[in-house]
Amino acid sequence: MNKRTLLAIALLASPLAAADGQWALGQSTLTYHVSHPLHESEGVSHAARGKGVCQAGQCDFLIAAPVKSFDSGDSNRDLHMLQVTRGAEFPLISVRTRVPDIAVGAATVHADLEIQFVGQTVVYKQVEFQETVQGNTIKLTGTIPAKVADFKIVPPSLLAMPIKNEMPVRVDMTWQKQ
Amino acid sequence: MTCVCLCAVSFPSLAQTADSPAQTPATAPAGNSQAPSLGDLGFPTAQTKGSLLDQARLDRRSHMLKIHQKLGLITLAPLIATLIASNGATPGHTNASGVTTGGGSTSSRDLHAGLGIATAGLYLTTASFAIFAPKISGTKTRGPILVHKILACIHGPGMILTPILGAMAYNQINSGQKVHGIASAHGAVAAITAISYGAAMLSVSIKF
Hints:
The structure holds 2 protein chains of 2 kinds. Helices cover 15% and strands 52% of the residues of chain A. Chain A has 2 helices and 11 strands, in the order αββββαβββββββ. Chain A has an 8-stranded antiparallel barrel. In chain A, strands 9-10 form a two-stranded antiparallel sheet. By secondary structure, chain B is mainly alpha-helical. Chain B has a domain at 59-93 and 102-208. In chain B, strands 1-2 form a two-stranded antiparallel sheet. Classes of the chains: A alpha+beta, B mainly alpha. At the A-B interface, strand 3, strand 4, helix 2 and strand 5 of A face helix 3 and helix 5 of B.
């Protein structure tokens, strides 16, 4: 291997090396939305924690939040939510994703999300997120098109009317490069 | 009575905890050793360990409250019927010459009394499922359920007082007396009870 080849490898490798590193989740807001014929409700959690590791052109992210950290403003509803999602048995909801490092910082990223919740693992393909880069931080927003049936949750009902199957989760997170 | 619901002593907390064996693995996905694991996120162990006993407590609570909800709806039927039947249970008017005119018949009063007793019985059964549902420690009551519980403090005593006052009024009418004393409050107490009961149902059904 001559000097010219080594120089070329070093030049090609340097951007990847620069992209390697870790990300930590700063502020976050996760909001689930459920619909019932009589009313709509939302539960919000600010208790998510997350970490991202970028290496060799790939970034692996893990985000998790305690199920009981979601607050809908109604303690009774929150306890029912905790029961139907088996939140005492499976206290965390976790999301894993792997994206190419070039996607980190792009305006839009499509990610395959592996969600563990209620003892089930469900993959949502190509979920779109918007990214806004501000210095060493990235603000990420998007909506996960979760459905009650995907996680085999028995839909809670009120006055014999169950909630709708759609349970979108709005994501608003700020990641900090370490 | 239903104030007990608000102030009910929580069931003794379960000392031992059965850990769930099926909690999310804290390891990185297979074949990807660089990926972060749940252990990297620094959650306290208490937040990551599942408890089958706690889940069973939640399941039991929800089960009992579902029965509470169903029985509450069922109780509405005899309650409405009792209110309708009350039209035939009114005492007659005695004029100056001592002749009683108008008022309901004895059979109508019996029907009203029977429906009232059925309502009170169903109501107490309904309330007991809420009162004895396991309490979840560390939960602060917030939202519409707080209104529901406050209203229960009105219709709870009302549902006990109404049949007592009704029985007093019934006896007074049957013995040829004019309804007097505290028994004369039977109608007003019943009305307040019925309104607060309906409002309590609406408070958890419709988002205001």
